[in-house]
Amino acid sequence: MSEESKETRHMLAAIDERNAEQFLLCAETMHYADLAEIYESLTEEERDFFTSNIDMEQFAEVLADLPDTLIEETIERLEPAEQREILDQISDDDRVDILQDVSDDARERLLELVEPDDIEVTKSLLKYDESTAGGRMTTHFASIHGEMTVQQALESLRKESEETESFARVYVIDAKDKLCGYVRFRDLAFNLPETIISDFMRPVKRFILASADQEEAAQMVSKYDLFVLPVVNEQHRLLGIITHDDVVEILEEESTEDMEKMAGFSGEGSEETYLNTPTMIHFRRRFPWLFGLAILAIASGIVMIKFEDVLNSLFILSLFLPMVVAAGGNTGGQASTMVIRAMALGELDQDSIIRVAWKELRLGLMLGALLGTGMAIITITFVPMFYHDMPAEIGFTKFAIAVAVALAIQITSSTLVGSLLPLGARAAKIDPAVIAAPAITTIVDVSGMVIYFFVAKAILGL
Amino acid sequence: MSEESKETRHMLAAIDERNAEQFLLCAETMHYADLAEIYESLTEEERDFFTSNIDMEQFAEVLADLPDTLIEETIERLEPAEQREILDQISDDDRVDILQDVSDDARERLLELVEPDDIEVTKSLLKYDESTAGGRMTTHFASIHGEMTVQQALESLRKESEETESFARVYVIDAKDKLCGYVRFRDLAFNLPETIISDFMRPVKRFILASADQEEAAQMVSKYDLFVLPVVNEQHRLLGIITHDDVVEILEEESTEDMEKMAGFSGEGSEETYLNTPTMIHFRRRFPWLFGLAILAIASGIVMIKFEDVLNSLFILSLFLPMVVAAGGNTGGQASTMVIRAMALGELDQDSIIRVAWKELRLGLMLGALLGTGMAIITITFVPMFYHDMPAEIGFTKFAIAVAVALAIQITSSTLVGSLLPLGARAAKIDPAVIAAPAITTIVDVSGMVIYFFVAKAILGL
């Protein structure tokens, strides 16, 4: 790792001194991912220096690695001739990604610059949404025909060798591009030249429709340890492949997005690194939920006002009020995290709802009973040490029982709410990750107040 | 996908009827990942039927795909002869994984069953912890020597063809197994047979030490879009490779673990699916944090008791108390999620602490100012409609200002706490994900109470 940071330091020094010669020398040996990271951290003028000095063939790869939000302003820095070169050098799927990230105006302008022999595939890929299997796939797969001999197959592959992204799987297609099977590249290298492909090709058991969600593709690759996942259309025509690096990217994106939603952020997961995201963007993504939840939280205050007389008649109740309320938020948050993650990993379908409810109900009862008992013991042991105004008709035991019962009810109901709300959200076609910890905490805060005061009133006769 | 569930349904029917013939027929065509999922969902007697009928060669793969917690009880179901066959059939890294998952007793017993020609590599791999690059790597990589011709290289690879996991990268090593470079398999297939390997081999720029953390390996593969990551020892000897499916597994494990820790779970992320994890295990993983946080939450209650006179002299303060407290938890949770995820993706090092603090301080001030202003407006507009007991010397405007100021201070401080605590945790070698939403919420609940009552006292002169 230290070698990379040395490279990066040299590069940053070259940019700082506006030393074009040194800059090119550094860039030559660097990986596009490191260059993209450096570019992201530069000021406006430094970025101008970067783009006007770097080799366009290399910059095509850097550009494809930049976060979505930087694509348009970066490509606008370039001359039309440079834009044309970039669009020519870049792979089909990266070209389409870039075109999908820019404004409609810019897309029309850039499409005019795409070379005639690339325009058809570009336009056909543009039809697929970015988050579908079709939007993620690359069209540079290796394909041969079943009636070829091994020698013919190798010759046909050799011609496309530099363009092809992965030779891990060589797909066998028919005259209409329909997917018939696959061979491993090593099968070609280790078979006799005159062997016919269809004699030893294997069936393709797993493939995905171009219109399917990218998350489904990632789940299949992950579950079945696939090297490459072929993407087909309704007619079983092979359109492209999803490779391991796409899957890694999808998994990281989806996990980040889920975590952010679970913490109450608006909008899509940001691809930019935390520090390089402008403060205003952070602000806009965090504010709406905060404000909404704050309004909701006033409901808890209204409950407190309504039960003013209960609280005033036995103010020691305040000692455990925040605890009972917070315990509901914590257990509800745990339950929702479990369920949301299980859904993201494809473990729960709509039929599981009864099993989930039953499991969480038992869990809630167990957690509630044990925590309630623990708190009752703590109450009876410690509260009499410093509190001497307990009315005789109530007594510490009754008080402890009230706290314990309220806590147990609050925990059981919150566990159930936390596990079922995300499932309900999915049934209502809302992203379950949105109904996570912050929303659930706010909801069970209100119910916790109500439960606590009702139980206190009932058991202590206030 | 529907084809898979049909297979699964047939299989479950065969198990239900204890129909061994049908069972074997189904198993033959099924993927080990599906078989493992089915096995996980079976009862004790069904599992016995499963293990006593399935072909041991196939069961070796199923076993390697089972969650850690099921490994020991599953392998104990088998006869020693079957265990021996499994240990022989399985790949080196899976064998070591299994041995690492069982108790010390079982490990000693199983090691005796390992074939003599596998025992050395097994023992050497057992030295690496499961969560290191060395613990994750497979030793079935393709390697050749630089002085070989292409023809010699292909012949040597052909012999190992069935054992080798990935031919995407063929590594070139010297007589002492030191890593010298790599060639792509297609380079071999498309070069003349008499070409010398060292004439066209490429340098290996990225590799990892066997002792490095698995997360570091996954981050390298993800950042640099690698096919395969070579694992070396201190002497640069090539020991193994980490492939795409290891990386996918590492990423899913680490994301699940982070999410669970962020929601307050104890222990390691569970590999078992949510529904198949026994309720008692869920209970044990959730209870400790819930109990600890409940004890901490009593501190909030103590603050309330201490400020009893402030609350009693102006009970309408209760209306906004839960909101101010909860807003801190929400904004602190957002900040910590951002920072923890950025750390997990390798974006933040220890030096970034000042930049993070500065960013979150500005964000906190902006969020606090805007939310405070919003709440002040709401207070002045709506509270006078139903509350008629506001003392004249205080008035609604002063009251609204007190609420707004307390809210702004609470949000600013909570944002800062939420972002800095995870960084502090890492500096103190505590896993930052542990110091996430639930812990931060509980901490800022207490500080929120204190801030609210102090500000109310100061501004309203109570």
Automatic annotation (TrEMBL), chains A, B:
CDD domains: CBS_pair_Mg_transporter (cd04606)
Topology with respect to the bilayer: Multi-pass membrane protein
Cellular compartments annotated: Cell membrane; Membrane
Keywords per UniProt: CBS domain, Cell membrane, Magnesium, Membrane, Metal-binding, Transmembrane, Transmembrane helix, Transport
Source domain of life: Bacteria
PROSITE patterns: CBS
Primary location recorded for the protein, binned into one broad class: membrane
Chain ranges passing through the membrane: 287-307, 313-333, 363-387, 399-421, 433-455
All residue ranges annotated as the CBS domain in the record: 137-200, 201-257
Pfam families per UniProt: CBS, MgtE, MgtE_N
Function: Acts as a magnesium transporter.
Stored PANTHER family: MAGNESIUM TRANSPORTER MGTE (PTHR43773)
Protein family per UniProt: Belongs to the SLC41A transporter family.
Subunit (UniProt): Homodimer.
Name of the protein this chain belongs to: Magnesium transporter MgtE
